[in-house]
Design goal:
- The protein is an all-alpha fold.
- The chain contains 1 helix and no strands.
Length: about 110
C-alpha cells in the first residue's frame, strides 16, 4: 500500500509540474496576445493619422490648384491689357502718320 501511495504521490507531483508548465505557457501566450493587441492599436492609430494627413494634403492640393488657376487668370488679364495698351499706342501713331501723309498730300 505504501508503494501505491508513493506512486500516486509521484504521479501527482508530475501532474503538478505539468500544470505549472501549462500555466507558465498560458501566461506567456496571454502576454504575447497583449503585445499583439497593443501593436494593433498603435497600427490603427497610425493609419488614422495617415488618413488625416492625406485629407490635409488633398485640401492643400485643391487650394493650390485654385490659387494657380486664379494667378494664371490674373497674369493672362495683365498680358491682354499690355497688348491692348501697346496696340492703342501703335494705332495712335498710325493715325498720326496717316493724318500727316494726308496733310502732305494736300499741299
Amino acid at each position: 500500500m505504501e508503494k501505491l501511495l508513493k506512486e500516486i504521490l509521484a504521479e501527482l507531483t508530475s501532474l503538478k509540474t505539468d500544470i505549472s508548465g501549462l500555466k507558465l505557457g498560458q501566461e506567456k501566450l496571454e502576454q504575447g496576445q497583449s503585445r499583439l493587441e497593443h501593436g494593433q492599436s498603435r497600427l490603427e492609430n497610425d493609419i488614422n493619422e495617415l488618413k488625416l494627413g492625406q485629407q490635409r494634403l488633398e485640401v492643400g492640393q485643391l487650394k493650390l490648384q485654385k490659387n494657380l488657376v486664379d494667378s494664371l487668370g490674373e497674369y493672362t488679364e495683365k498680358i491682354v491689357e499690355h497688348v491692348d495698351d501697346r496696340t492703342e499706342v501703335l494705332n495712335r501713331r498710325v493715325y498720326k502718320l496717316e493724318a500727316e501723309v494726308e496733310r502732305l498730300s494736300r499741299q
